[in-house]
Automatic annotation (TrEMBL):
GO terms for biological process: iron-sulfur cluster assembly. It comes from the Archaea. One of its GO terms (molecular function) is metal ion binding. Homodimer. HAMAP family: Mrp_NBP35. Residues 8-18 have a biased composition (Basic and acidic residues). ATP binds at residues 35-42. This is Iron-sulfur cluster carrier protein. It comes from Methermicoccus shengliensis. CDD domains: Mrp_NBP35. Binds and transfers iron-sulfur (Fe-S) clusters to target apoproteins. Can hydrolyze ATP.
Length: 282
């Protein structure tokens, strides 16, 4: 009986891998994390996924922020639904970018009434995340970008242990209060043995379109300074541009429809991520 059960488990595992279910066939899994909320982590995750797809990669985007699932809104796919397969797996919502690649998206927001709160305890949230990781057909994606909940408590910890990511991106803003929290995120990644691909400073200095002088609404440079102090790469600064927020509200990733400094910064960061991961195994 024990041998029969083992054979059945092996066969089921093989079938799952063959059908592309779970994250085992994804080449590179990336956590996008932050020490605190409000730093634009989901905006960075969405635009990074889009930039990678525009650069010819097949990308999965997992919205693991169960109580604040915003990714479908940012991609204007709120009215679409994942589909269940006859085998009991889930096909994510797909956004074609090129002839043979695009973005596959999974979020709890697809299953919620718009604006409904998620009043769940930790175990129920983790069960949903486990299903997204194990039962969704991510296929042979090049990248899985995972938008984590903010902070360093139970959920980010459990997700990191479950996903076994190839790297972490840490998002911060220039304010010192955000830098204090992001130090904790960097230390958490190091404790878990997750390589820190780099720090991204969001809402950084921009240039006034009228006078050409720098505008530092929240300051600038603290993210790079902190990265150097902690011995991790600094991937770049995203200038504060009002159009980024407007494009997110409209469901059009900023990087896809602009040639501004912020859009170029997102693309440069995507290229650095590709160089770090694809170059590592070359």
């Amino acid at each position: 009986m024990e041998e029969d059960r083992d054979e059945q488990q092996e066969r089921q595992a093989g079938e799952s891998q063959e059908k592309g279910a779970g994250i085992g066939s994804v080449k590179y899994r990336i956590m996008v994390m932050s020490g605190k909320g409000g730093v634009g982590k989901s905006t960075v995750a969405t635009n990074l996924a889009m930039a990678l797809a525009m650069l010819g990669r097949d990308v999965g985007l997992l919205d693991a922020d169960i109580t604040g699932p915003n990714i479908p809104k940012m991609l204007n796919i709120e009215d679409r639904m994942p589909t269940a397969t006859e085998e009991g797996y889930i096909d994510p919502v797909e956004i074609p970018i090129g002839c043979d690649h695009g973005i596959r998206v999974m979020s709890l927001a697809f299953f919620l009434e718009r604006g409904a709160p998620v009043i769940w305890r930790g175990p129920l949230k983790m069960r949903a995340i486990e299903q997204f990781i194990e039962e969704v057909r991510w296929g042979d994606a090049d990248y899985l970008v995972i938008d984590l909940p903010p902070g360093t408590s139970d959920e980010p910890l459990s997700i990191a242990q479950l996903v076994k990511p190839h790297g972490a991106l840490i998002v911060t803003t220039p304010q010192e209060v955000a830098i204090m929290d992001v130090r904790r995120a960097v230390k958490m990644a190091k404790i878990l043995g997750v390589p820190v691909l780099g720090v991204i400073e969001n809402m950084s200095a921009s240039v006034c379109p009228h006078c050409g002088k720098p505008l530092e609404m929240f300051g600038s440079g603290n993210g790079e300074k902190m990265a150097k102090e902690m011995g991790v790469p600094f991937l770049g600064s995203i200038p504060l541009e009002p159009e980024i927020a407007r494009s997110g509200d409209a469901g059009v990733p900023f990087v896809a429809g602009s040639n501004s400094p912020a859009a170029r910064a997102f693309e440069d960061i995507a290229k650095r991520v590709m160089e770090a991961l694809e170059g590592r195994t070359a």
